[in-house]
Design a protein that fits this description.
By secondary structure, the protein is mainly alpha-helical. It contains 5 helices and 4 strands.
Length: 126
């Protein structure tokens, strides 16, 4: 895909009202929703969009996400934050806990918060 095609696609996505965070949606739920719908381009595109729309003065967001291993949107969810145990489902074949096929509704945060909601917890380093 050319740079121009990529830019055009991004502009179409952000013009869609569904690409905006809902009233009390947290950064982790928003990023998870956007990565699921539109993928990760190895940047913090969705986290930065969240900050621009919700809390433009939160200039430390990228640094804070990087400190938990979130150097791009998908890494926020792979390295930084995981759904809390109570929201996971048990795989009947392996007995392992897995994320549900559909993410639960966001537990909500304050309008300008850049913190994850109660659905998320910091991943423990392995």
């Amino acid at each position: 895909m050319s740079v121009a095609d990529e830019a055009e696609l991004y502009l179409r996505v952000i013009a869609d009202p569904r690409s905006e965070p809902s009233a009390h949606e947290c950064v982790a739920c928003y990023v998870a929703r956007m990565v699921e719908s539109h993928g990760c381009d190895t940047s913090l595109r969705w986290a930065q969009r969240f900050r621009e729309l919700r809390s433009p003065t939160a200039t430390g967001l990228e640094r804070r996400l990087g400190s938990v291993g979130g150097f791009c949107d998908c890494e926020i969810l792979l390295n930084g934050y995981a759904l809390v145990r109570e929201l996971m489902v048990r795989d009947v074949h392996t007995d392992d806990l897995e994320p549900p096929t559909e993410l639960p509704d966001c537990a909500g945060v304050g309008r300008t918060s850049t913190r994850p909601c109660a659905n998320w917890e910091r991943r423990r380093p392995q």
